[in-house]
Structure formats: C-alpha cells, structure tokens
Design brief:
Mean pLDDT: 91
Helix content: 25-40%
Shape: globular
Radius of gyration: 21 Å
Number of helices: 7
Number of strands: 15
Largest sheet: 6 strands, antiparallel
Length: 300
C-alpha cells in the first residue's frame, strides 16, 4: 500500500480541525488504495549528526522515509523547515510537492546544515531542532551540557551553554517565538573563521573566548588574531571552499572548530554576511575584498 503524508501549517484550533477534516475526506476518496497521514509542520523534529539524519514525528512515530509522497500544503512562516524537508525528500528519493520550496535559505542554521549534509559535508556537531518537549527529552544524549541557540541568530546572539532541561525551558520561556537549535558542545581552544572570496581562501581569523563565556565570537568579547593561511590544515581549507561552493556563496565566512580531545574537525556554520566592513581586521578584509571584485569584474 502506498502512503502519503500531508503537511500543513495549522496553528489555531479551527485550522487544525480543518486540516483533520481535509485529510479524512481525501482518505474517503482513496478508500484502501492509499493510506493518508497528516501533521502540522511544527510537529516534525529534525536530527543531524556525522552519521545520521532524520525528520520524524515524535508523537505519531513516523519518519518521512515511511512515505511514498510528501505533500507540503502550506507553510506559513515555516520556510526553514520546508526547505529542510525538501532536501530530505530529494536525498531519499521521496516524491514531494511543491518543488519551489527547495531553495537556498542561508539565514538560518538547520536548513543550511541539511543542505551541506546531503551534499557530502557531514562534519557537524550532533544537532536537534523542533518541539521543546522533544528537545528536552533528547538533551541527555548530548552529555552533561549542550549549546542552545537561535536558529536564525548571528554574532553569538541568543546562544547559551545549558546544563539541564530546566535551563532549556527557562530560556524558551524568556524568548517566546524563537525557534532554538540544541547542539552538542565541542570542547575547544577557540575556532577559525575562514573567509572565502570567489572560491579563494582569502583570510583566516583565529578567535578565542575571553574566558567569561563559551563563545569565541569577537562580537561577544572574544580575542581575534590573523592566522597564517599556510599554517591552516589543508583539509580545513578544502572543507571551507567546498562549503562556500555548495551554498553558492562568492562571499562566505566558514566557522570551523577543532575538538581539543581528539583533533576532529567540526563545521559550526557558514555565514553569508561575514562582517567584511566591521568586526576585526577591516583593513585586511577590504584589501582581499577588492581583489575579489577585480577577479569578478574581469572574469570572462
């Protein structure tokens, strides 16, 4: 028997009842030939790590891979989730509608991670995204602490080190409407911001926490120094270039961290607006940016 999942954005009780009724009427038309399931898009939970990716429904117990067709009826403000769903369907060869939803949305973390994962870049810390109840249930899998951060945050804003489900609940309550990502904490001595300009590694900035925060961002008080490009491990350079190419960015700030326990390389995120005219080393950035502009304008 074929199975179809209908996904809609249904927030009010009236819209939920309407979605229920629509699914029931469709099922009546199909009788026993096809099984219809439906859900509200915010009910889905997103998981990603080096060796696993999943989009599932915590209460109903299904994974999107259980279906032959996924129909995204309407999404409201949930374009991020819709983009990740389409990436998932493409990778696992699940038919879906509508294909216009499979477009780049780089101002958020979760759909960008899914895009990179499905294109072979899997160096991400283990990541959860979705309903608060499921975030809290799975927190223990990440150890005794984790990172809780705004899916659309930047420059370290709304980025917290949490050690309990109570903290997760408290932060959620203090920031209504924010969709948080829960991510594995990687012990580190700092991170690297690799500036990629027109597929060229132009500048590498080493960033270290000021000791009062888990954040290395200079916008959050971190210390920054220029790191010699020749000293950067070749695999980090290759990873950064590949990430910018997958994301179709001529200007990209790729944030990379080394696990201080074993030296494993983790990709934190890719930034499409990496503080070229602000932050640290603006003169050096301006020089490299001008070189990129010359390359682009003279490229035949």
């Amino acid at each position: 028997m074929k199975k179809i999942l209908l996904i809609a954005r249904a927030v009010s009780q009236a819209s939920i009842e309407k979605a229920d009724d629509f699914a029931r009427r469709i099922q009546q038309q199909l009788v026993d030939e096809i099984q219809i399931e439906h859900c509200e898009i915010s009910e889905l939970f997103f998981e990603l790590s080096r060796d696993r990716v999943a989009i599932y429904h915590p209460q109903k117990g299904f994974d999107l891979r259980d279906f032959d067709l996924v129909v995204i009826r309407h999404i409201g403000q949930m374009a991020v989730e819709a983009h990740a769903i389409t990436q998932y369907c493409e990778f696992y060869k699940i038919k879906y509608t509508d294909q216009y939803l499979n477009r780049l949305l780089l101002d958020n973390k979760i759909s960008t991670e899914f895009l990179l994962w499905f294109n072979g870049v899997k160096n991400h810390p283990r990541t959860f995204y979705g309903a608060l109840t499921e975030l809290k249930r799975r927190f223990a899998e990440l150890g005794d602490k984790a990172i809780l951060k705004d899916n659309q945050g930047s420059k370290g804003r709304l980025n917290f080190l949490v050690t309990s489900v109570e903290q997760i609940q408290q932060i959620h309550d203090q920031h209504p409407g924010v969709r948080f990502v829960l991510q594995e904490f990687i012990p580190n001595d700092g991170d690297l911001r690799v500036l990629i300009l027109n597929d060229r590694p132009a500048l590498v900035i080493s960033r270290q926490s000021n000791g009062r925060s888990h954040l290395n961002n200079t916008s959050q008080g971190g210390k920054a120094t220029i790191f010699p490009l020749a000293s950067v491990a070749p695999e980090i350079v290759r990873l950064s270039i590949r990430v910018a190419q997958i994301a179709k960015l001529q200007v990209a700030g790729v944030d990379v961290m080394l696990d201080q326990r074993n030296g494993d390389i983790y990709l934190l995120e890719v930034n499409n607006a990496p503080q070229i005219s602000s932050g640290s080393f603006t003169e050096e950035k301006a020089v490299e940016y001008a070189i990129m502009l010359k390359e682009l304008v003279n490229d035949n």
